[in-house]
Amino acid sequence: MIPIRPHILKMQPYSPGKPISEVKRELGLQEVVKLASNENPFGPSPRAVEAVRAAASDLHLYPDAAAYELRTRLSERFGVPFEQIVVGNGSDELIHLLGLALLGDPEDEVIVGHPSFVRYDAAAHLAPCKLVSVPLGEDLRFDLAAMAAAVTPRTKMLFIANPNNPTGTVVRKAELDALVSTLPPQVTLVLDEAYFEFAEHLPEFPNSVDYLRAGKNVIGLRTFSKAYGLAGVRLGYGFAPAALTDAIHRIREPFNVNSLALVAGVAALEDGEHVRKTVENNRRGQSRLAGAFEAHGAKPYESFANFVFADLGRPAQPVFRALLNRGVIARSGEVFGRPTCLRVSIGTEAETDRFIEAFDAAMRETAAPSEARS
Ligand code: PMP
Fold first, then answer.
1. Integer angstrom CA distances of residue 46 from 52, 104, 259
2. Which residues are CB-neighbours of 36 under 8 A, at least 6 positions away?
3. The pLDDT of residue 372
4. Cα 78 from Cα 222, distance rounded (Å)
5. Of ligand 1's atoms, which has the minimum distance to the CA of residue 164?
6. Contact criterion met (CB below 8 Å) for 372 and 364
7. Sign of CA dihedral 31, 320, 355, 227
8. CA of 195 to the centre of ligand 1 (A)
9. 134, 279, 289, 305: least surrounded by Cβ within 10 Å?
10. 292-315 pLDDT per residue, tens
């Protein structure tokens, strides 16, 4: 018997979207579209690709452990002091490191919304400590009043994904201000802004940097995986009070961000055009997908991210399978505790066409007999 720590055996391994190669192999399909992991449909920023090529000849050297150039550029771009910036192997790693830095007592409490991003739960389970899961409210938006009411003297962290994954919904500035004003100083508010670039045009969209400047115990998490198209090299960053960035520097691996990610990030930050194109395409895709769901009587939730979450009003798993048989990988809602929902990432125009065609057929094929007749 290998003495694995018992609470670790209670943790679920992360369940990623199905890879394209696996679907091709299993179903014998030639062309498969993956709309399951909220990746950038235009690929990486071309400038980042160029920078990675140029950096390949230096792969024998360790990366810059301080990420000096990237953090300097992030500091200039977002107006956050250098020492308040941390970078990680994806924002996933920063969530993990925050758990290590802040949780340690089994009586500690972590508040999350449900459904939301599952890696927050993992940080609490790993500690291990108490996970307080507050159901989303009306229209699958965070119920901030209920989350505020869940805070106790043992609460250490409160996670808000804004926009939220898997729902795509956002928390507005006025309601977040109200929450922040009630939080005791020992509660670190983690504002996960992985989909920030897709929502920042919204006038009432709050920005973690403002709370940081106001001296709040807040960390804003962002990523290069979505709007910048760099999910494969793993690069995320965070803005936090210096006491928190200092703690993360003490516990992180010295070379947590690899040298290709460092140069890719610097180059992608300069590539405003790629982000603009991605965000524009995303807005068109959001409304096309919403229309496709509504045409079948499904309810799409208002999304400000690069995916749309919709309640089909019937089990989504058969629809997910029927889509898969047509070479379209989406995400069925079971993993999010919403078995009648489907999450679909926004692709290129052509991929959206392909999804809509497959979805129409999948809904017809899987309709209950009474539905099919009407
Ligand atoms: N937060 C949210 C809300 C996400 O949806 C994701 C990506 N699935 C992440 C964090 C992790 O992103 P990264 O690729 O930077 O680890």
1. 10, 43, 17
2. 17, 18, 329, 330, 331, 343, 345
3. 52
4. 12
5. 3
6. yes
7. negative
8. 8
9. 279
10. 999 999 999 999 999 999 999 999
Q: What is the pLDDT of residues 98-108, one digit of tens each?
A: 999 999 999 99
What is the predicted pLDDT for the residue at 58? 98
Whether the predicted model's global pTM rises above the 0.85 cut: yes
Ligand 1 midpoint to CA 135 (Å): 20
Q: Which helix (H) or strand (E) holds 88?
A: strand 85-88
Contacts of 327 (CB under 8 A, 6+ apart): 23, 27, 29, 30, 31, 32, 33, 354, 358
Structure tokens, 321: 């399978």
Three-state SS for 192? strand
User: What pLDDT, on the 0 to 100 scale, is given for residue 369?
Assistant: 73
| Minimum-distance ligand 1 atom for the alpha carbon of 225 | 14
The two tokens of residue 259 are 């040298």
How would residue 18 be classed by pLDDT, with cut points 50, 70 and 90?
Answer: confident
Residue with tokens 């989909």: 195
Report the half-sphere exposure of 31 (CA within 13 A, side-chain side).
5
Q: How far is the CA of 172 from the centre of ligand 1 (A)?
A: 20
Tell me if 140 sits within 8 A of 305, measured CB to CB. no
CA–CA separation, 66 and 86 (whole Å): 9
Query: How far does the chain reach from its first CA to its final CA, in angstroms?
Result: 59
Ligand 1 binding pocket, CB closer than 6 Å: 38, 90-92, 117, 161, 165, 192, 194, 223, 225, 231, 236
What Rg do the C-alpha atoms of the chain give, in angstroms?
21
Note the pLDDT of residue 357. 98
The three-state secondary structure class of 10 is coil
194 CA from centroid of ligand 1 (Å): 6
d(CA 284, CA 69): 35
- Which numbered atom of ligand 1 lies nearest the CA of 117? 3
Average pLDDT value for residue range 271-276: 98
Find out whether 47 and 270 touch, Cβ atoms under 8 Å.
yes
For residue 91, the CA-to-ligand 1 centroid distance in Å is: 6
Q: Which structure tokens are listed for 89?
A: 């192997």
**Which residue, by CA, sits nearest to atom 6 of ligand 1?**
194
**26-43 pLDDT tens trace:** 999 999 999 999 999 999
